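Cross-check.
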Amino acid sequence: MSITNVVIRKRVTRLFLFVGMILVLLIGRLAWIQFVRGEELRIKAEANRMDDIPVPAPRGTIYDRNGVELVVSISSDSVCAFPPEVKKGAPQKTARELARILGMPYEAVLKKISKPSNFEYIQRKVDPEKIKEIKQLDLAGIDVVEEKQRTYPKRRLASHVLGFVGMDNIGLDGLELKLNRELAGIPGRIITEKDATGREIPQALHEHEPPVPGNSVWLTIDEAIQYFSERELDNIVAQYKPKSAVIIVMDPKNGEILAMGSRPDYDPAQYNESPAENRRNLATQLNYEPGSTFKIVTTAAALEEGVVTPESRFYDPGFALVGGHKIKCWRYPRAHGAQSFVEAVENSCNPVFVKIGLDLAKERFYKYIRAFGFGQKTGLSLTGEALGIVIPEKEVTPINLATISIGQSISVTPVQLITAISAVANDGVLMKPKIVKTIKDYKGSIVKEDTPEPVRKVISKSTARQLAGILEKVVSNGTGNNAYLEGYRIAGKTGTAQKAGKGGYIQGRYVTSFAGFAPADDPQVAILVLIDEPQGGTYFGGLIAAPIFKNLAKDVLRYLNVTPQLNADEIKNRTEKAEVLVPDVVNTSLEDAQRIMAEAGLETKFEGEGSWVVNQQPKGGAKFPAGTRVIIYLGTQGRGVPSGQEVTMPDLTGMTMREAGQLLGRLGLQLNPEGTGMAVQQKTAPGIKVKSGSTITVIFSPPVPEPSP
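Predicted model, tokenized:
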């Protein structure tokens, strides 16, 4: 018996120990789950039980400086599915119907609505007609949710500045990307409690956190000036078919950019339909050799350092020899001969600037290159700004110094150059360029306000004024004569730079430009016009970029209410320019039309192809000053006006009948006036593309007198 008891006790002890070990393991496991992984598992359980649906916040609006909407968010419907609900119905039939309406593959739709999740988007931002058809079907588990979609009321206007957003309303380029945090707002959320099958539990937890709308942004861009600039860009493309073109308009006194555009461009609402190259903002990302426009910097440094005075004398043999290299003047083999420094600037004489650059030496010259902001970012609030390319000072050779002085062997960006030229216009003070003016929250409170920011004093006020006077003579007497605008003092400089390639410069490829400011004595705007690889045989900046500058400056100065001031010579010329009757040359030969217009004292510009005049602007019988340019449209006899190219309709509001007719005439359009006085309404809205040769109806009305103070 004793042996049996001992055996039993041993067995009981072993069993007790075994059970004890199991209990210890269970308690340890329970402690591990409760105390170590407790929070993690609680979150997972809550995630299984709770449905957290994000509610996107509406992005803020982007306005121009005057409050004109450039980018807004509008409501858009998306089709979504609740897979647990779909499975209760007929998923195959649902997939077929949705695939048919949405134009999606059946397999793709079926896969989406069969996923082991509680919510899936099938297609986002769907056409309203398709949404209507889906709602009529009343498919189980299929719903339509409202989202916000970005839209651009001015379409392509300022597309490179504004940028675009992706499907999820996240900025991908331009200001949409740079200011994404400010524009995006704070998403909200809807939280609902559900059972194991994904159904909402009655009386369960239900929370709604509303989204906080994004901040709105006011730019320094002026919609009207931006339109004027892009109109000229379209004219450049139509006439010269360049690789690219850039125009920037800046207020030199505060650094605010009033317009910035480039070609090629794209539609931000359909950005994926344009190649990536079209979406580059060339105003900030293009590195190019500026050519003679850079001579403004060379001149500023030489005047400030006392290397030259306006009266300094030079002799140009047609070239300069530097270290065995011959640097030719643009008019070689002819030479400018003896000339003063002012005349050398007027003539854009390369040998004179080579000598000045060498006399400055690299230490002094590079001091001004850096001071004017080359080789560094301007700090503009746009993505992808380039640095430009400046040879390191310690590596500069005499031949580098000579070519830099004429704007070669150095690469700049358009925004760097316009900023530097604005410093001359601003009495020698370099301003940080600005494109964002104010940011406000959805309540209207100011979140951020950009104020003018002086960077540094580059040259003295006296040097800047002296240089402005010299640049004014470039326009009145020199290579920039085609930028001359009656009634305004224009200061500027032409530029024609041969493009660099492997092993040297490429024959026949040029970047042509004109940079200047107006009025020269009280600058209100600085403008840069840049044309990359113009076609047609004409490539000098003074011949193709300067006239574009003139056209743009005329409209911008008038828009800014800068009153023209005729000088004595202009008054004399106006007096001597008697008005002449414009002959009617429609249905005559090209040769006869040219002869008749010349005999009448009028200039001619021919548009189209053919040897027969099918239309003209202004029409015959109108009176204009002698020397006025008449546009002659050519075609084939008996075929009428040929179909013209597309042009963008301008805003004619506030113009006189004559001003509206002249502006439309320059675009190849005809005016059909109704009433008298000032333009108050036009049948074709601004920004619409129309064919040249079209007739535009404009309603005129006498101005309403302003009330007495």
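The chain has a mean pLDDT of 84. The chain has three domains: 52-214, 223-568, 578-701. Passed to J.P. for a second look.
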